[in-house]
Q: What sequence folds into this?
């Protein structure tokens, strides 16, 4: 059953300045490119869609076909998110971080599954036992991707997912996006057009338009 | 997995972090040790008139416990925001569960601090305790109230500017009734009685603070 994420007439203002207004879209599967200049509100939009910020007005709806729209609490795990603001616990190891979030969210904490997920994002066993404080920028970014996909969310929101990654890391994220877009909607916000590989839809902040066929 | 198990996960995470970085623990214990030493040197076991001792000792003990706790307990949510981990926590764990876990950690931190401070107080000020059981119950009830209110206020101010000033301003009227009742119970317990009335007030305060904190947890931290 496909899951749809939809925004209806979203407005966001900061201190009287309007960041975006009347923003509406709906996506059930595939890649949605979120583009715009610095400060155009890409990060804010993704945080609103993830439930981490409130819009000034408008609605966000996440709904699986044939079921009622998810409540805010249900959206918590159904929408995966990562962004430059996301920090994980520096005193814990990567494995401890994932185990904690799984346990605190009331989900299973199979160590083998968590180790496999970390290996998939390019964090091998010899690295996952080290405190996150000792990680490089790229390693932290890989851990953010593992966090975003930790609960196998039907909707994935990735804000600047390639930042700090080497070519191998960029390939890993591209593979993760390719797999996730087959299952449901993936929204990628970026300033780099190379991050949008054949998007099904494009949100240009300041105006939404479909990509030309 | 029930809410208690999830709250325990938050508490265990906080404990592991604290054991590895030792920020709150060192601040709390260092303040308690410094205050205790200063009080013992300034007043000493024989510096107080016998008639005034029970009230002054109880007040001094709670002043030390409160201010030592105030150096560590408010960090519960503030530390998450300062480290930038608040977003990940808000994304995956409901606010009441986080509040429960952090309250539990703060309560344990308070009890550990009391377990170190009270023996020091007994020795350095020659404090006479008539009913150790009543003192223990007063510490449990007073410490829990302090933990739940401090944790909730930490959530409330964690994303505000000037959060330290804000915490003190809001905490003062909320915690004052708790401290006055705890001091009253401690005086009676030290004299050998069982402060049933004061303990009932403390338990009622704890219940009301717990209900209020859990009902408002989402508003305080997520909005």
A:
């Amino acid at each position: 059953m496909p899951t749809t994420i939809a925004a209806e007439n979203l407005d966001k203002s900061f201190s009287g300045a309007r960041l975006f207004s009347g923003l509406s879209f709906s996506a059930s599967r595939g890649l949605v490119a979120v583009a715009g200049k610095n400060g155009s509100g890409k990060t804010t939009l993704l945080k609103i869609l993830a439930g981490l910020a409130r819009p000034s007005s408008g609605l966000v709806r996440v709904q699986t076909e044939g079921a009622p729209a998810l409540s805010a609490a249900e959206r918590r795990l159904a929408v995966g998110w990562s962004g430059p603001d996301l920090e994980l616990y520096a005193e814990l190891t990567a494995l401890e971080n994932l185990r904690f979030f799984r346990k605190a969210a009331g989900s299973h904490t199979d160590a083998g599954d968590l180790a496999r997920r970390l290996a998939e994002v390019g964090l091998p066993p010899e690295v996952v036992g080290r405190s996150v404080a000792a990680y490089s920028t790229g390693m932290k970014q890989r851990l953010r991707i593992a966090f975003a996909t930790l609960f196998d969310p039907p909707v994935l929101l990735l804000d600047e997912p390639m930042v700090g990654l080497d070519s191998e890391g960029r390939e890993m994220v591209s593979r993760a996006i390719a797999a996730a877009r087959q299952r449901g909607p993936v929204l990628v916000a970026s300033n780099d057009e190379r991050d949008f590989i054949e998007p099904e839809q494009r949100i240009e902040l300041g105006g939404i338009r479909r990509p030309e066929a | 997995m029930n809410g208690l198990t999830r709250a325990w996960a938050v508490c265990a995470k906080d404990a592991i972090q604290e054991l590895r970085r030792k920020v709150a623990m060192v601040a709390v214990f260092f303040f308690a040790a410094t205050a205790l030493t200063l009080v013992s040197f300034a007043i000493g076991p024989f510096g107080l008139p016998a008639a005034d001792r029970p009230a002054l000792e109880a007040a001094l003990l709670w002043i030390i416990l409160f201010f030592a706790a105030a150096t560590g307990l408010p960090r519960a949510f503030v530390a998450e925001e300062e480290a930038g981990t608040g977003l990940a926590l808000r994304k995956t764990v409901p606010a009441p569960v986080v509040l429960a876990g952090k309250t539990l950690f703060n309560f344990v931190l308070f009890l550990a601090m009391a377990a170190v401070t009270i023996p020091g107080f007994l020795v350095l000020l020659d404090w006479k305790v008539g009913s150790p059981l009543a003192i223990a119950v007063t510490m449990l009830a007073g410490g829990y109230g302090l933990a739940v209110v401090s944790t909730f206020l930490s959530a409330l101010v964690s994303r505000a500017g000037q959060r330290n000033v804000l915490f003190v301003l809001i905490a003062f009227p909320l915690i004052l009734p708790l401290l006055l009742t705890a001091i009253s119970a401690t005086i009676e317990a030290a004299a050998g009685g069982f402060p049933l009335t004061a303990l009932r007030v403390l338990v009622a305060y704890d219940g009301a603070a717990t209900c209020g904190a859990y009902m408002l947890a989402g508003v305080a931290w997520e909005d």
